[in-house]
Every structure is written in structure tokens, then in C-alpha cells.
TrEMBL record, chain A:
GO terms for biological process: regulation of cell shape. It holds the Pfam family MreD. It is a multi-pass membrane protein. Belongs to the MreD family. It is found in: Cell membrane. This is Rod shape-determining protein MreD. The chain crosses the membrane at residues 29-45, 52-80, 100-121, 128-153. One of its GO terms (cellular component) is plasma membrane. The lineage of its organism: Bacteria, Bacillati, Bacillota, Clostridia, Eubacteriales. Its main location: membrane. Gene3D superfamilies: 1.10.1760.20. Keywords: Cell membrane, Cell shape, Membrane, Transmembrane, Transmembrane helix.
Automatic annotation (TrEMBL), chain B:
Residues 125-277 form the Rod shape-determining protein MreC beta-barrel core domain. InterPro entries: Cell/Rod_1, Cell/Rod_MreC_2, MreC, MreC_beta-barrel_core. The chain crosses the membrane at residues 12-30. Belongs to the MreC family. This is Cell shape-determining protein MreC. It comes from Candidatus Eubacterium avistercoris. GO terms for cellular component: plasma membrane. GO terms for biological process: regulation of cell shape. Involved in formation and maintenance of cell shape. Keywords: Cell shape, Coiled coil, Membrane, Transmembrane, Transmembrane helix. Residues 64-98 form a coiled coil.
Amino acid sequence: MRRKIFIAVTIIICFLLQSTVFQRLSFVSISPNLLIVVTAAFGFMRGRKEGLFVGFFCGLLMDVFFGPVLGIYALLYMYVGFINGIFKKIFYPEDVKLPIFLMAVSDLSFNIIIYFGMFLFRGRFEFGYYFVHVMIPELVYTMIVAVVIYFILLKINQKLEEIEKRSAKKFV
Amino acid sequence: MKRKKNKKFPTKYILLIMTVFCVIIIFSSVTKEVSSGPVGKVAGAVILPMQKGLNRIGSALNLRADNLASKKELQEENSQLKEQIADLEEQLSRVSLEQYELESLRELYKLDQSYDQYDKVAANVVGKETGNWFSTFLIDKGSKDGIEIGDNVIADGGLVGIVTDTGNNYAKIRAIIDDTSNVSATNLSTSDNCIVNGSLRTMNERQQLEVSDMRDKDNKAKAGDQLVTSSISDRYLPGIPIGYLTEVNEDSNKLTKSGYLATVVDFEHLEKVLVIQHTKDYSDALDN
């Protein structure tokens, strides 16, 4: 229960920040993608199932307010969470390289899929342009913000896991 | 215990079920134009008030950043603006003459068909699209205040976009700078029709929109012409200013022209908008 509330609050805070404050703080009209950071982080910290659901709800929130079609972001984010969850086996909290790498790949592949799904088929063929002017700037900006968010999430997650372990021991 | 549970119901199947679920939602929202419905209601009630508050912080931060613009830039801008004022004053005198003429003609024809006559609702922009691909945003008024899907949205006397979805206390607006947006427009000085295409690329490169399919037999269209929404559009009310042509080029087919357009509205700093409570036939409004 405690964990569910924590996740809900995290998603809502990140969504709010992303749709308001970070839109104002955008450089050359590019803003970071916090929700993908949250989704990926929960994926590799907690496993496939939790990543899947966190992703689904992040995406659903975006769909309801901004999506071109209801359900499309939910689907994409869900897969991002699930695939990141596979890497839980090789995830160690002390190692920063893997999380950063995973989040970068998530953000990039997410954008590439959006490009192919929603831009290419409308005759916007200049992949190179969009890659350099939209995806790469977003990636860089997202990674800068991701480092901060990731460490906050990691600390809170470790605390939560400790508490959960303790209460589990009590029952034994 | 937990491991047993997992074995009973592997994550793979959950993924499969959720995927099917998502696909069903996507199809139903594409084919039946189902709006966000109950989820939207709940989310709107929870998220919107918070968004409003945070947005204020955002605009405060934005102001702070704007204040840091250097003195030199400001001086340069000042001299440029002075030139512009001189230009505009000249234009104004010309326009006021024309306006006088227009009014007298209108009186003659009793043609009061501009958008002034419709009821409008003022609303604040509370959130912008979270990705970098599309330009949609949220306002803090919804169906409760009489906003319907297909309502046109204006600000600073120019066209902003169209309402594509409404909740109880919020409405989703697709801006004309969105990559999927197309507006049928008329050139005021030649009364030729054309299409104004929203484009992520030209917005990024030059903060302008694309204009295409402009028929201009007499070669009269030139930079500086004003474009307004055309009367043949089935979504936009006629006569709303969109922007000014900045460049006109002949297409390779030698029949039509294309070019670029600078919008009247400053989309970077959009905060207050007016929603016109009168819709044209909006059956196609959600197609894109």
C-alpha cells in the first residue's frame, strides 16, 4: 500500500512538472521526458511487472490529456517499463552506468517509434532532421534531469524496501 | 508466497492482456471517437487544480529567465522596434482609411459576418504537451463552461487552434502549429485560397508555418499579405486572422505557390486564450 501511494505520487508529480514547469524551462522548445525516466527506473529497480504497470499509468495519464489517440502512449510506455524490467537481473544500485544507459536507450527508442508511427506515414521523411533537432536534444536534456531524479527514486526505493523487509520479518 | 503468485500468473500474460486492452482502447478511440470519458473526469478533477498552481510557478520562472536578457540585446531590439513603429504608424493610417471604407461598405451590405458576434469564453493555459512532437495544450475551462469539441480558439486577435477534446473542467486544444494541423486560409489582399500546414520542422527552424496550394494567377501574393481563415473551411469560422506571409515561392508545377507564414499569436508565451462558442460542422475535426 505504501509503495502504491509512493508510485502514484511520483507519477503525478513528474507529469505535473513535465507539463507545466519544464515546458516553461524548455531550451529551443525542447523539454525533457520525465515520465520515461520514472518508467524505466521502476522497471529495472523493481522488475517487469511493476515496470509494466508504472508505464501503463504514465502513458494513460499522457493519453488522457495530450495524446493524439487514447491508448497509444499507454501501450508504448508499458513496453518500455516491461523491457527495462528484464534488466533487473543485472541491475546493482551501486552501478550508475547501466541505469543511465537504459534510460537513454528508452528515451531514444520511444522517440524513434513515435517518429515512425506518427510522422513518417504522414510524409515527413527527413529522419535525419528530426533525429538531430528533436530526439538528440531531448535525449541530452532528459539525461541531465534523469541523473537527479534517478538518485531520488533510488534512495526512496531503498528505504521502502528496507521497511518492507522489516515488516515481513515481523510476521515471521 | 510472492514467488508462487508469480508462477501462477506470469508477467508475460499480464503484458499480453494489457497489450490487447490498449489496442482495444486505441481502436475504439479511433473509430468511435470515444473521448477520455470517466478516466478523463477523474484525472481532470485531480490533476487540473495542481496544474494551475504549478503553472504559476512556471511562468514566474519564465519571467526570471526573460529578465536576464542582456542590455545590448535590448538596445538593439529597441532601435529595431522604433523602426517598426514608424512602419506600423504608416500602415495604421492606411489601414484606418481602409477600415473606414470597409465600415461604410459593410453598412451598405449589412455584412456583419465577422467572428466578433459570437460569444467567447476566456480561459488560462494550464499545461502543454509533454513530448516534443506535438503542440497540444490544456485550458482550465471545459464542458461545464459550455466549451464543445470543434470550438475555435483565439488569442491576441489571431487563431490559436481548435478544441479536440473536452472534460468537465478542462479542454484539449490542438494548436495550428501542431504538425498534424491544416487550416484552410484566404489571402486578404488577393482573396485566393490556400492551406496553412502546421509543421514541427519549420517551427523549429524559423518559427513559422508552411503555406501550400496557394493559387495566385495574377502573381500578386507577396510577403506581408495577411491570411485569414477562409469561408470554405468546415472547422474554422471565417475571417479569423492567422498570420502574415513572409515568403512566397512558385511551386515546380507552375500552377500553385507555397511559402511561409508568421503567426499573429505568440505560441511561446501563450497564457490566456478566448474560446469562441460557435462551431462549424465539426464531424471531421477529430480525423487527424
